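Bug report (template v2)

What were you trying to do?
Predict the complex of my protein with protoporphyrin IX containing FE.

What happened?
Run completed; filing so the output is reviewed.

Input:
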Amino acid sequence: MGTKFWWTVFASLVGVSTWIISLHFWRITRKRAPPGSIGWPLLGETLLFLKPHPSTSTGQFLHHRVQRFGRVFKSHLFGEPAIVSCDPDLNAYVLQNEDRLFQCSYPTAIHGILGEMSMLVVVGDAHKRLRTLALSLVNAAKTNPTFLHDIETNALLITGKWKQKQTVIFCEEARKFTFNVIVKQILSLEPDSPETSTILKDFLTFMKGLASLPLYIPGTSYAKAVKSKSQILSTLKTLVDRRRNGEETHRGDFLDMLLTSTSLADDEILSLVLDLLLGGYETTAVLIAMVLKFLTDCPSALQLLKSEHEDILSRKQNDKAGLNWDDYKQMSFTQNVINEALRCGNVVKFVHRKALKDVKFKGYEIPAGWKILPMFSAVHLDSSSYEDPQEFNPWRWQTAIAGKQFTPFGGGPRLCPGSELAKVETAFFIHHLVLNFRWRPAELDHSVAYPYVEFEKGLPIHVERLYMAN
Ligand code: HEM
C-alpha cells in the first residue's frame, strides 16, 4: 500500500476525531448551564485552571471568571464539562447531598495511582464501610493517652536535633514529624525503624506523581509514583504477614484493630492504611508550615500565642505527665491561629464531585453527568464571607462562627475524619516550638497552590534555642 493510502487513512481519522470533539463541545454549549467558557477542544481550560498561584490568593483563573460570569460558571476541566462553584451555599449543598444528587469523582489518573479501593475513589456503601473504620481510628486515638504522648515525644525528637543558629528546611522537619506520628499510631513503627524511612522515601516519590501529568511512560513522575505505591504496599504487606504469622506480637494499634475485628480482605486493609498515611501526613505538615509562616509575619499573634503556652506550662509545672486533651482544649488562641492559617493558606483548594442527575439550586442549573468543583479557597478569601479576607487575623475567630463558608476539611458525609488529629498535632508542635525557639526566615518563601500546596523553597528558617522551658 502506498503513501497515498496512509495519508487518506490519517486524514479520515483526523476528520472523524474533529467531528466527534466538535459534537461533544456543541452538546456542552447547548446544555442549560451557568455562563462560562469551555476553552480548547480536549484540553478545555484545564491548564489555566491548574496554573500555580500563591495559595493565599484565588489565582487568576477564578478571579477573572468570577468577575466576568459570577460565582458559579461553566468550564471544561480534566477532560469533562464542569461547573466551578465559588458560592458557599452551593458548595454546602453539593457536599451535603453526596450519593443523592452528587458523588465524589476524582479524575481517572488519581484512580490509577490511589487504586480502585481508595476512600477517595469508592462510593456508596463501600465508602460508608471504610469511613466507619477510619472514624473509629480517630476516636480510638483521641481517647488513647499514649497517642498524645507520642505526638509530644515526636515534636521533641525533631526539634531536639536542631542545633543553635542552625538553618532548617522547616517543611521537611514538619513532614518528618507528621509522618512519624501517623506511622506510630497506625503501624506502631518507631521513627528510627527501617520501615519508617523506607515508607517515607517511597511516599515522597508517590506525592510528586500524584500531582503530575498522568503519563505512564518509564521515567515520568507518574510512572515512578505508581511504582513507589506498589513498593509501599509491599512493605505494608510484610508487616501484615508478620502479624498474621505471629512473628510480631499484637501492638494494640490501628493495624491490629483492622486485622482482628473486621472482615476486610488484605488488599482492602492495605488500601485503607495507605489512605490514612496519605491523608494524615502531607496536609498536616503543610498546615504546621503555614502556621509558622503566618506567625513569622504577625509578631503580635506570635506574642499572644506564646503567652498562652507559657501559661499552660506554668500551670503544669508539677505535672510530669505531659500535654493532655484538656490542655489542648484550653489552647483557645492557638485554635484561632490554626483556623486562620487554614482559611488564609487553603491547604486543600477544592474537591471533585459530579452531578448524578440534573440539579437546580438557587437558579443555577447543573446538568447530569457534569463535574462540579466546590472551590473552598474562593469562599475563604471572599470579602462577603470575611472582612478584609487577605489579612491574617486570628482574632476574628473570637467572634466568627465556623459556618458553611469555612470548609478546610470539606463537609457532609466525606468530611475529613482526621481534622481533629491534624489540629492537635499542630497545636502540640507549635507549643514546643514557641516555648523553646526563636526563628527568622533564612530566605523569603511563600506557599503555592499547584493546586496541591507546597512552599516553593521548603520554608528555610534560622532557629535559635531559648533555653527556658522543658
Ligand atoms: C490539615 C490537615 C488536613 C486537611 C486540610 C484535610 C483535608 C481533607 C479534605 C478537604 C477532605 C475531603 C475530600 C473530599 O471531600 O473529596 C479530606 C478527606 C480525608 N482525609 Fe483529610 N485532611 C487533613 C488531615 C487528615 C488526617 C490527619 C487524616 C488521617 C488521620 C486524614 C484522612 C482523610 C481521609 C481518610 C479522607 C477521606 C474521607 C472520605 O472520603 O470519607 N486527613 N481531608
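What did the reviewer find?
Residues 33-465 form a domain with the Cytochrome p450 fold (CATH 1.10.630.10). The CA atoms of residues 39 and 141 lie 47 Å apart.
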